Amino acid sequence: MLGTTILITNSVVPLMGGNRGDKACVIQGMLFMSGINTLIQTLIGSRLPVVMGPSYVYLIPIMSIISSNNTGNYDSEHQRFFHNIRTIQGYLIVSFFVSIILVFNKAWGNFTKAL
User: Fold this and answer.
1) At what angle do helices 77-104 and 20-43 cross, to 10 degrees?
2) By its UniProt entry, which Pfam families does this protein fall under (predicted)?
3) Is 54 helix (H, G, I), strand (E, B) or coil?
4) 18: exposed, middle or buried (Cβ count in 10 Å: 0-12, 13-18, 19+)
5) What's the predicted TM-score (pTM) here?
6) How many Cβ atoms sit within 10 Å of the Cβ of residue 78?
7) Residue range 42-76, pLDDT digits in tens
């Protein structure tokens, strides 16, 4: 999990315009959220002894967000980094709510039964 965190951060943060300090903040945020997800999984979820970590699934959408935001006029690379990170966070929040709606409406279960 730690290796995945470092690998994803090292590949994405420089493309967003971040420096070493920004990379450290992203790593800290990922580790913190991995810990929270692990606690939720072991206390509320299926109670399996797993360690939750970041996923490679989001790399393709994140890369497309970064490439679409590179054309903007920014005063500095740091400002471009903050714009990119906020856009990515908004994308993750929206995708979370879409998945919650699909699960609670039992649409996902019906879809998987149909396959």
Assistant:
1) 20
2) Xan_ur_permease
3) coil
4) buried
5) 0.77
6) 14
7) 888 777 778 888 888 888 888 998 888 877 788 88
What is the overall mean pLDDT for the chain? 87
Which of 92, 86, 97 has its CA nearest to residue 54? Answer: 92
- Is the pLDDT at 94 greater than 90? The verdict is yes
Q: N- to C-terminal Cα distance for the chain? A: 32
In terms of phi and psi (left: phi > 0; alpha: psi -120 to 50; beta: otherwise), the region of 48 is beta
| Closest C-alpha among 14, 15, 13 to residue 54 | 13
Residues with Cβ within 8 Å of 48's Cβ and at least 6 positions away in sequence, in order, are 41, 42
Query: CA 31, 26, 39: angle at the middle one, nearest 5?
Result: 20
The amino acid present at 62, given as its one-letter code, is I
pLDDT at 21: 93
Can you read off the two tokens belonging to residue 71? 């054309």
Distance CA 101, CA 98 (A): 5
Mean pLDDT over residues 96-115, rounded? Answer: 84
